[in-house]
Amino acid sequence: MKNILGLLLLMHICCSIQAQIVPDSVLVKYSADSNKLKKGRILSKYFNFDFEGTEDEKLAMLLKTKLYFESKKEPVGADYCEAFVVSYAWSKGDYAIALEKGLNILPNFESRKDTFGIIQVTNSLAIASSDSKNYTQAIEYLKRTLQYSTSSHERVGVITSLNNMADIYNKLKQKDTALYYIQQAYLRSREYDRPYHNSLVLTTMGETYILRGEYEIAKPFIARAVYYGFQTDDSSTVSYNYSSMANCFFEQQQYDSSLYYASTALHYATPFYKAEMLKAAEWMYKNYEKKHNTDSVHFYYVMATELKDSLYSLDKIKNIQQLNFHEQMREQEKLQSKIEQDHRRIKNLQLTGIAIFIITFISFIIIFKVKRNNSASLEFLGIMGVLLLFEFLSMLLHPFLERTTNHNPFLMLMSLVSLGAVIAPLHHNMTAWMKKKEARDQISAAQKKKPKH
Q1: Which CATH number does the domain 26-153 belong to among 1.25.40.10, 1.10.10.10, 2.40.50.100, 3.30.70.240?
Q2: CA distances in angstroms from 83 to 50, 80, 307, 370, 438, listed in the order given
Q3: pLDDT per position as a tens digit, 65-102
């Protein structure tokens, strides 16, 4: 009987150790793949390319999906949803939230050695740091992004990291360092040969040579960036590079050519890309100043001023969006807190009910008078009582054991084995005591039945 009890306890110990929204089509693919890197790519593809809806709708779905993954104890999915929230935050200009959330989840990806997730988060942290003028920190994050992208052969990550490094060094006026990084990005973009990344790198290459005052070298790169901008139907890139071409001709005092490219840049930027419209309008009035055309100077200067005012209004809209984002995050945190409280309340009620049942069951065994010919029933009930007690104590102690053993399966196993080693003798002693009590009661009853002489 002791061997059976030991086997049953060991089975329960093993069970205790084990016990530890997006569309259904996406969830099916996600669940079917055991590779955490591929899981991240599945979610990334959906939210970055396949999702149809506004940015605010995407945020709402991200938050709901994150809760879903948390309820299923699926940390990989929950962390990737949070990583996409980080990208949303910096795109809205809320760099503090992006940095805070990104730094919170980065250790999770690092502990799982999830290079794709690390690349996503460090790149977002770099952009948030750069846009908030913290260039030194941005460079550190980009170096990490570049390191992980290189080691995991993520070509897109390598190209964008090198390009962004060059862009930051251009802003810091470190021309030689910027040139080194953009040349590395250029070599890799030629191997990868995708129009979007070609236009991205060639644009930065042209800007780098403009800052170095090497305008004749800059022009061919700018012209090719325009070509790829047309291939990707990216009017913003086309306009931006035409303004860069206007810059080259202006510095070379070829004002007619500069005017041509500035007016072309203004054409492609109008009416959607106000930042590019502003850049083109500024080159227009600067050129007309050189040509002493007062009316045209006034016209484009007023246009540039109005565009600045318009962009200022857009900044105010962005501030409102930031406030809405903060509010959504607060509501999300309140909802999550309420769900956790409800879970704790239900769990406490369940544990209380189990405790009452076990106490009642053991009390019933002790109080119930089992006849000698039913000692096997007594033995069975005793085993059931001990198993219930063991399972209840293991459920109660499981969170504590996870914390104290740092989720180490071997230490948790030894702890539960120790608990079983304490409970098993308890069952044996209790059964022996009950049998002795039964025997005494039977002797006492027999003595009472003896006839008195």
Answers
A1: 1.25.40.10
A2: 17, 5, 34, 63, 66
A3: 898 888 888 899 899 999 998 888 876 667 778 888 88
